[in-house]
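sorry to bug you again but im stuck and you know this stuff better than me. theres a chain ive been looking at and ive put its sequence and its fold in token form underneath. id like you to explain what the token line says about the fold, in plain words if possible. anything you notice is useful, everything is just below.
___
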Amino acid sequence: MRNAVYSGSWVSDAKRFFSKNNRPKIGDEYLSGSANRQEYLETAINWISESNIKGYMSKNQHEPNANELWLYFQSVINWVKATFPTYRKEMKGIQWGFLYNEFKNQKFDSQKLEVEITKLMQDEDVTNKKGIYEYILTGKEKYLNIRGFSDNQKREAYERQQGICVKCGVKFELHEMEADHATPWHEGGKTSAENCQMLCRDDNRRKSGK
């Protein structure tokens, strides 16, 4: 529909790079979706426009070619390959363009990154392996979806503490408390019964910055 609304020389040239059967096969292993369904083109425009697809297509509708978009896309793929030389299936479908926009000017040691990625891939507490790459760049644990404690582990810790929050020292009912890593995950703490502690909701949210 967007191609019809913004039809012209620019769209025709952009489809040559991202939609045609004889298009250059660059970056396919990093993209989800289908080129024939215009999803590769949509992704590239979304990246370069910072999610303002309509605005970008309107602005460029009457440009003679889509060279800017094609050169940008190649830069994204080349940056990914240089930063993370070892390809893994988890790299497919990540929003690489947004990461490129934010981190392209930073210097990274690819060998050190690979060591950290390998370690995280083997960590059973990391349940979202695809999120490792975003975590590596941003440092935000939310992308990893760290495995939570089981109900049995929570109950065990609650009984061990006799229902007393280890932070404020006040006694609570089990449903008023939340499980927490005594030794934080990023410091090597595992999601195990021995590393589970129960905090009241307020203290747990203060600790995690929520």
User: Anything to note?
Assistant: Strands lie at 177-181, 196-200. The CA atoms of residues 16 and 62 lie 16 Å apart. The chain has a mean pLDDT of 92.
